[in-house]
Amino acid sequence: MENEKDIVYSQAVKAGKRIYYLDVKRNKRDELFLSITESKKITTGTGEDATFTFEKHKIFLYQEDFTKFINGLSNAISFIHQNQPEGNVTDEKTDIKIPLTNETPLEDSLDIQIEFE
């Protein structure tokens, strides 16, 4: 059963009506893994009758899958960048350096550079 005490690091990323929670957790074998939660605010009704709920979706990402996941994510984002219709592109640039293992020095890291023009 999940417990807030299992979280050893947490970061929230706010994006419009969504919030992405990136939580590093420790399992029973003392291994760390990443829990990604998307929380989306859902409004039902209008005016004074409006009610709010939050829809949540979770992904658990384990250390042995980090490199494959990052490569897949990078490929998918590159595809979107290359195939996005003109006029629907933002002016953001993402430059991320992620060490492949905790034994790997930063100069041997996976470097993801994504430009949105």
How is this fold's topology laid out?
Blueprint: E1 7-15, E2 18-26, E3 32-44, E4 51-62, H1 66-83, E5 93-98, E6 110-115
Antiparallel strand pairs: 1-2, 2-3, 3-4, 5-6
Looking at this protein, list some descriptive labels.
117 residues; alpha+beta; four-stranded antiparallel sheet; two-stranded antiparallel ribbon; 1 helix; 47% strand; disordered C terminus
Task: Report on this structure.
This protein has 117 residues and is α+β, with helices and mostly antiparallel strands. The protein contains 1 helix and 6 strands; from the N terminus they run E-E-E-E-H-E-E. The protein has one helix at 66-83; strands at residues 7-15, 18-26, 32-44, 51-62, 93-98, 110-115. It has a 4-stranded antiparallel β-sheet, with no helix packed on it. Strands 5-6 form a two-stranded antiparallel ribbon. A hairpin with a 2-residue loop joins strand 1 and strand 2 (18-26). The relative contact order is 0.12. Residues 101-117 have low confidence and may be disordered.
Computed over alpha carbons, the radius of gyration is 18 Å
Average pLDDT level: 79
Low-pLDDT residue intervals, each spanning 5 or more residues: 101-117
Instruction: Count all strands and give the number.
Output: 6
Task: Supply the number of helical segments.
Answer: 1
- Cα separation of the termini: 44 Å
What can be said about the biggest beta sheet? 4 strands, antiparallel
Q: What's the shape?
A: flat
Q: Output the strand order for the largest sheet.
A: 1-2-3-4
Percentage of β-strand residues: over 45%
H/E element sequence: EEEEHEE
Overall structural class, as computed from helix and strand content, comes to: alpha+beta
Q: Helical proportion?
A: 10-25%
